[in-house]
Amino acid sequence: MSAVLVVEDEQHLADGLRFNLKAEGYDVDVVGDGEAALRALLPATGDRYDAVVLDVMLPGLKDGFAVAHELRQAGRFVPVLMLTARGRPEDVLRGFEAGADDYLPKPFELQILLARLRSLLRRREWMHRDQSSSPRTGTQLVDHPVNDPKTGTEWRGAAHDAADEIFVFGIKAIDFNSLELRVGDRIVRLTLMEAQLLRYLVRHAGKAVSRKAMLEEVWGLREDTDTRAIDNFIVRLRKYIEDDPSKPRHLLTVRSVGYRFVAEPNSSAKF
Ligand code: CA
Q: Which end of the chain has a smaller Cβ tally under 10 Å, C or N?
């Protein structure tokens, strides 16, 4: 049974979420402010919850942004679904900057919240399964063979350790197990969704992928969703992996389509 912490101060909404999440089979706790949320989420004994539904507007000194930020600062990477006010795209950006994995504007449809939550939990389970499985041979990171003629050229010269799920390009290395990105001697901790998105882009290296495909394949979202979320993630990933995020060489914008990951910019003349 997955344990979910709901951080919501509006009593009727908190009660409704508790009732419906329990009906879905989740173990649910509810707290009404940021301090209580951090007490629940930062025990010395490790992560008690599998996911957090976190309202942005909370009473007291810590709002949802502060909670997400402190959580990530503390090295806790439990998936966070943030509830934002509708029509405030700046909240969405701030939420992702603070470390949220996904967001939902209020008021929301219960079914959509449940779908988002399931999607976050599925991805977490999948990550854990990857971590606990025994070392494998062959290519595990890519769905398609590395020498796939459609994608292969971008992999030329890029070291790829399948067993450890580490992808190396230039002086950068992404460890999809520990959710760490190493750039030289700097280590960046990635959120689950940052890692998932990067992994998806790496898997499709050299190919343009649409925002819609990313939302469907990475977030598991089939419904119409604001694709701005993708752009915000790309902004963050560029800050991590680009020498100059304003002149990206790895995460390229493909006009009117989406984005393309290029591992070795110098060998991509073909594109
Ligand atoms: Ca609130």
A: N
- How far, in Å, from the CA of 11 to the mean position of ligand 1? 9
Percent of the chain with pLDDT over 70: 79
Pick the residue with more confidence: 115 or 160? 115
pLDDT digits (tens, 9 = 90+) for 17-76: 999 999 999 999 999 999 999 999 998 877 899 999 999 999 999 999 999 999 988 888
13 Cα–ligand 1 center, Å: 9
Q: Which residue has the higher pLDDT, 168 or 268?
A: 168
- Ligand 1 geometric centre to CA of 188 (Å): 31
The full set of domains in the chain, from first to last, is 3-130 (3.40.50.2300), 134-261 (1.10.10.10)
SS (H, E, C) the chain: CCEEEEECCCHHHHHHHHHHHHHCCCEEEEECCHHHHHHHHCCCCCCCCCEEEEECCCCCCCCHHHHHHHHHHCCCCCCEEEEEECCCHHHHHHHHHHCCCEEEEECCCHHHHHHHHHHHHHHHHHHHHHHHCCCCCCCCCCCCCCCCCCCHHHHCCCCEECCCCEEEECCEEEECCCCEEEECCEEEECCHHHHHHHHHHHHCCCCEEEHHHHHHHCCCCCCCCCCHHHHHHHHHHHHHHCCCCCCCCCEEEECCCEEEECCCHHHCCCC
Distance 34 CA to ligand 1 centre (A): 10
Q: How far apart are the CA of 48 and the centre of ligand 1, in A?
A: 23
What pLDDT shows up at residue 267? Answer: 59
Measured in Å, residue 224 CA sits from the centre of ligand 1 at 25
Cα of 46 vs centre of ligand 1, distance in Å, is 27
